[in-house]
Design brief:
Structural class: alpha/beta
Largest sheet: 6 strands, mixed
Number of helices: 10
Radius of gyration: 20 Å
Number of strands: 10
Distance between the termini: 46 Å
Shape: globular
Helix content: 25-40%
């Protein structure tokens, strides 16, 4: 069932000069049509300036269409009376976890949003416990966030969003400031939440390997949605992705280069284990 629907979405960034006149209009998202199903894991890829982060901010009502329509859970984001419901339905995790963590200890931080919306105290601590357990951070609930690694901080930020009981979590380049270990922790956490809790996950990233575990991949270029498909369909099109200034997972790139040298391999290899299995079968 469609959970998010975009119809002819347009978003412009307008520059105003000193006289209050329009100096420049930059169309960041240009006529995008898309649907995301409830419980789906979608990765959105694109080089800098492609419009992917602008698109992400439309998916929980942080930005509003200049043209077209965005529906989230059946609610039109242009209608002001829908915004509270939309933002309770979709939670956003941003790039820098330090910008989202404000509590002096982990459990207080996760509880912060619940206190603000007036959830009963008993229910708050039940939700905090459940959310920390879901992201594997229960053992750290009484620690200061300042003592955590980047990946652990980001998992606490995800727990804070989860405690609000959203149907959808949007991660806007949330692994960009993390080391490889931290990125792996976060991707494992959101994949688990998607599979076990049925939470819709939308991951905006420029790390191709992170998109491998998604159900579908969207590719943005110059404000347009130019490719859509499952990871194997998308990453097997190496030349097309390169034309959009994007890479592919390293193991897919290796298969592509070996094919050019006459070692015929499938074009949709996505993992090292797949590559090893295929190479072992070669005569």
């Amino acid at each position: 069932m469609s959970f998010i629907k975009l119809l002819k979405l347009v978003h412009n960034y307008v520059t105003i000069d000193e006289d209050g006149e329009v100096e420049e209009v930059n169309r960041a998202v240009d006529g995008v049509d898309a649907e995301i199903n409830e419980g789906e894991f979608v990765a959105i890829l694109g080089h800098n300036g492609s419009g992917k982060s602008t698109l992400a901010k439309h998916l929980n009502g942080l930005l509003f269409p200049d043209e077209g329509t965005v529906w989230i859970g059946g609610y039109d984001t242009k209608e002001e009376e829908n915004l509270l419901k939309i933002r309770q339905t979709t939670g956003m995790v941003f790039q820098n976890p330090d910008n989202q963590i404000i509590g002096s200890i982990v459990e207080e931080d996760v509880a912060f949003g619940l206190e603000n919306i007036g959830v009963e105290t008993e229910k708050i601590w039940k939700r905090v416990a459940e959310s920390l357990e879901a992201v594997g951070m229960t053992a750290y609930r009484e620690q200061s966030p300042n003592r955590l690694s980047g990946g652990q901080k980001q998992r606490v930020a995800i727990a804070g969003v989860m405690a609000m009981r959203p149907k959808c979590i949007i991660l806007d380049e949330s692994t960009a400031m993390l080391d490889p270990v931290g990125r792996k922790e976060v991707i494992q956490t959101i994949s688990q939440l998607n599979k076990e809790e049925g939470i819709t996950v939308i991951l905006i990233t420029h790390y191709m390997e992170e998109a491998v575990c998604a159900d579908r991949v969207f590719v943005m270029h110059e404000g347009h949605l130019v490719m859509e498909g499952n990871p194997r369909e998308i990453f097997s099109q190496v030349e097309t992705l390169k034309s959009y200034h994007l890479d592919v997972p390293q193991v897919t790139e290796l298969a592509y280069e070996l094919n050019k040298e006459g070692i015929m391999l499938p074009s949709d290899i996505l993992t090292v284990d797949e590559m090893v299995d295929i190479l072992c079968q070669l005569d």
